Amino acid sequence: MEQGKKRALISFIPRLVAAGLVAGFLLLLRMTPDTLHAAGSSGVVAAISLGGLIVMAWVMGDIFQWIRLPRITGYMFTGLLAGPHILRLISRESVATLKFIDNVALSLIALHAGHEVRLELIKRRFKSIVSITFFILLFSLSGVFLFVFFGGRIFFPFLKDAPGRTVLLVALLFGLIEVAKSPVTTIAILDETRARGRLAETTLGVVVLKDVILIVLFGVVMAIGVRLAHPGEVHKGLLGETLWRLSGSLGVGGLVGFLVGGALGIIRRKTYLLVIGLALGLTLLSMGMHLEVLLASMTAGFVIENFTRHGKRFLGGVEAASPLVYLIFFPVASAALNLSLLRDTWFIAVIIIMLRKVMVFVGINVGSRLVEDFPAMRRWGWMGFINQSGVTLALAIIIGREFQEFGQQFKAIALGMIVITDFYGPALFKYALYKAGDIGRKQLEGD
Amino acid sequence: MGFRLAILVLFFLAFGLILRGILRKRDSSGIRSGYLLLGHLFALFFGLLLSPALFSVIDVDTKRGLVPILEMSFGWVGFLFGFQFNITTLARIPGSHLRRAIAESLTAFAVVAVSSYFILRIYGGMLGIRPPDVLKNALAFGAVLSISSPTLIGIIQRRIRSRSPLTGLLTVTTSIDGLTGLVTLGVINIFWHPAGLALYLVLGLTLLLGLGQAFLIWLLLQSERKAIPTAILGIGVLTLGAGMSAYLGLAPVVPGALAGIVAANLAPGLRQRLARMLLTAESGLYLGLIVLAGVFLPTMGQYSAPAIMWVCFTALCLRFLGKMAGGALIYTGEQNRETRGRRWLFGCSLQSGGALLLAVALCYSQTMGGSEASIIVVTALATFIVGEILSVYSLPRLL
C-alpha cells in the first residue's frame, strides 16, 4: 500500500473507534434501567439518536468514499443498519420524532435542486429535457402498467382473487410511482461530485420536470382510483386538492422566493442562517396549507436563482448548510425503511425494477435520438434514474392509507423497491457522470 | 388559524428585514447597536409567535421535533462557554481583574439568591412553591439571574472598534458570572436530581459525560484539517452528549461546559480549529437559541397574569440591584480617569444575559419540570429582553 494511503488509514482508526463508542452508547441506552434516568421525553431520545447518527454516518461516509462509492450511500447504509429494523440503535419513536427535522432538511435540499435549474440551462437543453421526459413517462408508465395489468394475478398474491377494477387500479398506481425519481439524491450526487456537463444538466432538468408532472398525474389517478375502489361512495375534492397542492406550492414557493431574494440584498453575511430559516418557514407553511414541500422549495430556489440578482449569495448559504443537511436527511430517511419487507417482496420488487430500467433506457434512447442529443445520454443516461426514495415513499404512504384492500401490500412492494434502488442508484449515477465526462477520475474516486 | 399566522410571520420577517436594512445604512454606533438589539429581540418574538403556548403556529408534535435542535444548542452553548477557560490564557489574567470579577459575581449571586430565598419563604405559597422547594428555587433564581454574557461585549466592541482596556475586565467578569451560574445549576442537579439519584452518581455521570464528549471530539478531530467536517462532527458529539445528559436527568449545559474546558486545553492545533469552528457558528447558534427559547415558552395557565408580572418585576429588580452592587465593586478598583463618574455604567453593562442565561433557564426547566420551573423560564425571558436593552445602551458609552 502507498505510504500516503497507509498514513490515511492509520489516522482513520481513531474515528472508527469513536464511531464504535457512539454505537456502544446507543446500545447501552436501550439497556438503561428505568431507575437511572429521569422521565425522558421522546424528543430527548431523538436528540441522542440524531447526534449518534451524525457521527456514525459521517464515518461510514468516509468508508464508502474510500471504496469509491458515494458518501450519501454510506449515510443511507448507516440509517438502515442503525434503524429500528436491524441493529435497533435508533427506535421507531425517534425516527417519527425526527420527521420534522427531516422535512426541513428535505426542503433545504429541494431549494438547492431548484436553484440548480437555471433558465439558460432550460433554454440550452429544452428540447432534450422535454423529449426525454415525455418518452420516459410514456414507456415507464405504460410498460409497468401493462406488466401489472396482465401479470398481476400471477405475480401479486393479493391480486389473485381481486376484481378487475382493483387490478386496473393497482396497475395504474404502480405505473405512476415507477415514474418517480428523487431529485434529492440527484442533487446530492451532483453536489458531492461537483459535476458540470450535459448529462448532469439534463438529468436534473428531467427529474424536476417529471416531479411536477407526477404530482398532477397522481392527483388525477387518485381521484379516479378512489372512485374505482369505492364506487358507491361520495368523494369530494380530491382533484381540487391536487390542483391546490400544485398551484399553491408553485405560488407560495414563488412568492417566498421573491421575498427572500429581496432579503438577500440586505443580508450580506451568514446567509446560511437565512437559508435555514427559509427551509423552516417553507416546511411550516407547507404543513399548515397542505402544500407539497418539495415543489414549493424547488420553486423558491428556482425563483431566487433566475429572477433575483442574488442567486450566487444564496448558493453560498445553501452550500454551507448542505453537508450537515445531507447527513441528517439520508440516515433518518433510511432508518424509516423496513428491510424485513424485502423478505416477502424482493422477487416482485426486482422484476419491476428490471422492467423499469429497461423502459427508462428505451425512453431515453427514443427521446434523445429524436432531438439528436449527445451519445453519452443514450448510453449512460438511464443510470441517473434508478433510485426513487423521497417522492415514491411519500406516494406509497398515501396509497397505503387510502386503499384498505391492497394499500399495505402495495406499500411493502414499493418500499422494497426503494430499499434496493437506494443502494446502487447513487453509485451508478456517479459512474454515469464519469463516463459522460461530467466528472474526472479524481471525483469518481472521491478525492 | 395556521394560515393567518403564517402570513403574519411572513409579514414580521419582511418588516424586520426592511427595518434592518434601513438601520444598516446609518453610520453611527448608537444606530448599529440599536439594530443589533432589534435583531435579538426580533428573534425572541419570532420564537414566541411560533410557540404552542401563545399563538400555536407550530403544534406540540412539531415542537417535540425541535427538541433535538434545542439539545444541540444546549451542548453547543455549554461547550462554547467552557472553551474560554484555557489555562495559559487564564494565567495571563491580571490578579486584580480576577479578584474584582469574583467579588462582582458572588455579590450579584448573593443578592439575588438570598433575597429570593426570603421572598419565596414569605410569598412562595402564592406561586405553589412548597417550603422544602424554596431553597432549590432560590438557588435557581440566583443561578439564572447572576449570569452575564460576554458575547454582547465582544459584538459591540467589534462594531464600535473600541480599544478600551475595560473590555478584558468585563469579559473576565462575565465569564466568572457564567461559571457561578453553571456551578449553581450543577449543585441543584446533584442535590435535587429528578430521579433521586445519589450525589456521587450524579457527579460521576456529569464528569463522565463531559470528559466523554471531549474524548470523542479528540478522537474524531485530531487529524481533521477542514472546517466543515470539524463543525459537523462537533455538532454530532455535542448533540449526543446533551441528549444523554438530559436523558439521565442532568442539565446538558454543564457537561457541555466541562467538555469545552477540557477541549480548550488540548493540543494547540486542534484547539485553534475548534476555536474557528465555534466562532463561525456563534451568531447562528446565538440567534437559534433565542428563537427556541421563545418556542419552548412553557404554558403558564395555572398562574394569573398579575402573578407572572409580579414575579418578573421582582426578579428584574433583584438582578438589577445585584449587578449594580457588583458593578460598584468593580468600579471601586478602577483607576482609569475616563471611567470616573460612570460607576452605574459597569452595572448596566453586565445586565445582558445572552444565550447562556436562556440555556441555563431552559435546562433547569427541562430537568426539574414543574410549574415553578416555568416561572424561572418566563423570568429569564423578561431578563433577557431588559438586559439586552440596558447593555446595548450602556456598553458603547463605557467602552
Q: β content of chain B, as a range?
A: under 5%
State the helical fraction of chain A.
over 70%
CATH C-level class of the largest domain in chain A is: Mainly Alpha
The CATH architecture name of the largest domain in chain A reads Up-down Bundle
The whole-angstrom Rg of chain A is 22 Å
Number of distinct beta strands of chain B: 0
Total tally of structural domains of chain B: 2
Considering residues with a beta carbon less than 8 A from a beta carbon on another chain, report the largest interface and each chain's count: A-B, 59 and 59 residues
Mean of the pLDDT scores of chain B? Answer: 83
Helix percentage range of chain B: over 70%
User: What's the rounded overall pLDDT mean of chain A?
Assistant: 84
What does this protein look like?
The complex is a heterodimer of chains A (447) and B (399). Chain A is 78% helix and 0% strand. By secondary structure, chain A is mainly alpha-helical. The longest helix of chain A has 37 residues, at 119-155. Chain A has two domains: 3-98, no CATH class; 106-440, Na+/H+ antiporter like fold. The model of chain A has no long low-confidence stretch (mean pLDDT 84). Chain A starts with a helix and ends with a helix. Chain A has 18 helices and no strands. The relative contact order of chain A is 0.15. Chain A has helices spanning 3-31, 42-66, 71-82, 92-97, 99-116, 119-155, 164-177, 183-193, 198-229, 238-264, 271-289, 293-307, 311-335, 342-370, 375-380, 391-402, 407-435, 441-444. Chain B is mostly helical and 399 residues long. Chain B has two domains: 1-58; 66-398, Na+/H+ antiporter like fold. In chain B, 78% of the residues lie in helices and 0% in strands. Chain B has 17 helices and no strands. Chain B has helices at 2-25, 29-50, 60-65, 67-82, 87-91, 95-123, 134-145, 150-159, 166-191, 199-221, 227-247, 253-264, 268-295, 305-332, 343-349, 354-368, 371-398. In chain B, helix 4 crosses helix 11 and helix 6 (95-123) runs antiparallel to helix 7 (134-145). The longest helix of chain B has 29 residues, at 95-123. Chain B is globular and about 55 Å long. Chain B starts with a helix and ends with a helix. The interface between A and B is large, with 59 and 59 residues.
